[in-house]
């Protein structure tokens, strides 16, 4: 896809300074720009690159005034960074605006879908599936029986959405994600063998939830596993059965959350965090990477370590962790002196 400077300025409500017919077909960092590419300048540290960049078009702030000769066409806007982000969003909308049903694929006779629907090849829609408008399901995706999906949802290649799952408006489910697999429910018998506990609940994703590639969200044993509005999950995260995650909480890669834990709103959880089951974590909690959470957490706590301490206590303790060999040697010397005194 090609866009001219005039078209881009129209999208961004900007002003063109240079050739309005200059066309671009790809994006680039300003220091790596080449002919046919679009870039932006928002950080003053990168200003020197605008005089050497070969990018055809550069988005800049309105107050930018070149101090040397430049070859790139400028589009001047109020905020270059926000405008570039807006353009990326627009580009994704255009790129993902596929429609129609590709062959081979399977669509149950009882499935329904709204306007602007796209189904990629080798995908499957089960019985009684209900899809809203502008849903895009990419090749090799699976959507099981009785799944409900809202408007403007993207389901990327290889994603699996098990039966009875409910997906809200504006959600994004990336490749390899699995929504609604069975929770890890087994009971041991007298022979030490395990019997499976049926997992009869479902998964509910509210509006504008993003699920990263390879992330798994288990269905509830009873009731629902729920991710509230605006939750953002990174890649390769495990969410166990009956977990609830509050609005606008963001969780980084490789975190694992055990069953029936409740997490509040606007929390930030770092990568490789482990959280035990059946606890409650409050609102606006910050958990540093690789921490282990084994207790209830109050609102606004900041935690680090395994088992996790409050962030301030952890940093104070870490000073002593590093000095442990010296401290042990000093204690040994004191003990020797005490022993020597006792023998006298």
Q: How does the overall form come out from the CA principal axes? A: flat
Q: Over the alpha carbons, how many angstroms does the gyration radius reach?
A: 27 Å
Query: How many domain regions?
Result: 2
Q: What percent of the residues sit in helical stretches (DSSP H or I)?
A: 10-25%
Number of strands: 39
Name the strands of the widest sheet in spatial order.
8-10-13-16-19-24-27-30-33-36-38-39
Structural notes for this entry:
- The chain folds into 2 domains: 3-95, Udp-n-acetylmuramoylalanyl-d-glutamate--2,6- Diaminopimelate Ligase, Chain: A, domain 1, CATH 3.40.1390; 103-314, 3 Solenoid (UDP N-Acetylglucosamine Acyltransferase, domain 1).
- The chain is 16% helix and 29% strand.
- It is built from 4 helices and 39 strands.
- The strands form 6 sheets. It has a 12-stranded mixed beta sheet with strand order 8-10-13-16-19-24-27-30-33-36-38-39. Strands 9-11-14-17-20-25-28-31-34-37 form a 10-stranded parallel beta sheet, with no helix packed on it.
- It is flat, with a radius of gyration of 27 Å.
At a glance:
By secondary structure, this protein is α/β, with parallel strands linked by helices. It has a 12-stranded mixed beta sheet. A 10-stranded parallel beta sheet has the order 9-11-14-17-20-25-28-31-34-37, with no helix packed on it.
